[in-house]
């Protein structure tokens, strides 16, 4: 990443990316770059599923519209493309002033691109940018304060580390570098939010999965994440995906694969996956058993990250993943399932991570996060009641969340009443979680489970 003569980075600590409508806002002078560099950059961002706003379809007047100001506020990151005539546009300069304001007030990420211009001309207001400011001073004689604010905005943005198109060639390489860095910064912003969103104990589990993935290896590796419903398999897979996806050319995260296979066919789902990986909505993947030659040619050139979440029914799944060894070197396929046998059959046998239950400390933090909106109980007696919940839930994250939310805002007597009920009437939502696990068993497995359950309870099973 090329930098201007001096650099500083903006802080994104006060941004909540979940509140932003757009990932990226692009500020540009259309006449300079619309039909070339901008269109290629926009398409590259779109292919990487980065939701980008560019205002080329809006009617431009002398002053920037309130709607566009709101759009800038609703963007996580702004790309400012300084081209030869950027400084001559009052509209562009108003955009820039608003972008710098959002950087200061909300921590918006700002990244400049110096397209066929010298960064020092922007920073020192020389060359074409000096000419532009001189013209504005003449035109806006009665409003020189505005011109001064534009000058400060230009200088301030030029001090941020960015890209110089004169150094990074060819243009396709420049676009790749911009898109990859934008993705990395967006992912980092989301991960910063997730780290403070009640995902206690997640980091150590993510590291375990990462060690199995061994990203330095050039093999095409399948890794399984195994555990009971509600234990956090999807959460772990999601965090891993967001953390490492910028290292891959193509990415695809498919949720509820088991349900999708019940509604459709492996061929339909394979079509969807290949469409996301290879960027073709109408991609013809071939017959149920054989991929088309064109697909086989493209896959080996694609370093892909694929997550297949919550799978069961290994015969259909085997059809679905057949041929993924054709993906390019370094590709990774992550499969999550409550059935270890499914993971073994689809090639994850050597690399399976069993998700462990939360320990007592992690359980207390997670439960408190939902029950008290803090990481510890409010007082000693509430801690005793909380520890009863911890014992009941046995370290299952989803159960801890369900009970924490149900007890939030209630008094001691209501807590005692609810906990007393749990001894005789299990929570319906938690029962639903466990029921899904039971329903996924084969008939003989269900029979064995009931035999063991009745034996442990000291009950007689009635056949």
TrEMBL record:
Pfam families: NB-ARC, TIR. Residues 20-186 form the TIR domain. SUPFAM superfamilies: P-loop containing nucleoside triphosphate hydrolases, Toll/Interleukin receptor TIR domain. It comes from the Eukaryota. This is TIR domain-containing protein.
């Amino acid at each position: 990443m090329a930098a201007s003569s001096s650099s500083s980075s903006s802080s994104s600590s006060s941004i909540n990316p979940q509140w932003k409508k757009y990932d990226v806002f692009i500020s540009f002078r259309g006449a300079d770059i619309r039909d070339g560099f901008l269109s290629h950059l926009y398409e590259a961002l779109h292919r990487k599923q980065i939701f980008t706003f560019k205002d080329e379809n809006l009617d431009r007047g002398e002053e920037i519209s309130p709607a566009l100001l709101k759009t800038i506020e609703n963007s996580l990151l702004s790309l400012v493309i300084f081209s030869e005539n950027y400084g001559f546009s009052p509209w562009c300069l108003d955009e820039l002033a608003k972008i710098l304001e959002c950087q200061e007030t909300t921590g918006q990420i700002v990244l400049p691109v110096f397209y066929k211009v010298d960064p020092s001309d922007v920073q020192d207001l020389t060359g074409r940018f000096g000419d532009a400011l001189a013209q504005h001073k003449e035109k806006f004689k009665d409003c020189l304060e505005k011109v001064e604010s534009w000058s400060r905005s230009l200088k301030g943005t030029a001090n941020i580390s960015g890209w110089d198109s004169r150094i990074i060639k060819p243009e396709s390489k420049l676009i790749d570098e911009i898109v990859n860095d934008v993705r990395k910064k967006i992912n980092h912003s989301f991960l910063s939010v997730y780290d403070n969103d009640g995902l206690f104990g997640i980091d150590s589990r993510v590291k375990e999965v990462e060690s199995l993935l061994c990203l330095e290896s050039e093999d095409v590796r399948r890794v399984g994440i195994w555990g009971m419903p509600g234990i956090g398999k999807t959460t772990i897979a999601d965090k891993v995906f967001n953390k490492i996806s910028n290292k891959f050319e193509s990415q695809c995260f498919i949720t509820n694969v088991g349900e999708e296979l019940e509604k459709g066919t492996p061929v339909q789902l394979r079509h969807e996956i290949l469409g996301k990986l290879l960027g073709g909505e109408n991609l013809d993947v071939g017959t149920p058993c054989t991929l088309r030659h064109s697909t086989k040619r493209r896959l080996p050139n694609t370093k892909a990250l694929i997550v297949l979440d919550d799978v069961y029914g290994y015969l259909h799944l085997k059809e679905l993943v057949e041929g993924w060894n054709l993906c390019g070197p370094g590709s990774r396929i992550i499969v999550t399932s409550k059935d270890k046998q499914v993971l073994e059959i689809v090639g994850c046998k050597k690399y399976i991570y069993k998700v462990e239950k939360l320990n007592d400390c992690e359980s207390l933090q997670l439960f408190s996060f939902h029950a008290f909106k803090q990481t510890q109980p409010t007082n000693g007696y509430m801690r005793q009641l909380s520890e009863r919940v911890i014992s009941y839930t046995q370290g299952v994250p989803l159960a801890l969340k369900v009970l924490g939310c149900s007890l939030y805002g209630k008094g001691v007597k209501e807590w005692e009443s609810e906990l007393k009920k749990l001894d005789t009437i299990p929570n319906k939502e938690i029962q639903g979680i466990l029921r899904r696990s039971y329903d996924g068993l084969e008939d003989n497995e269900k029979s064995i489970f009931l035999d063991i359950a009745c034996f442990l309870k000291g009950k007689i099973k009635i056949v």
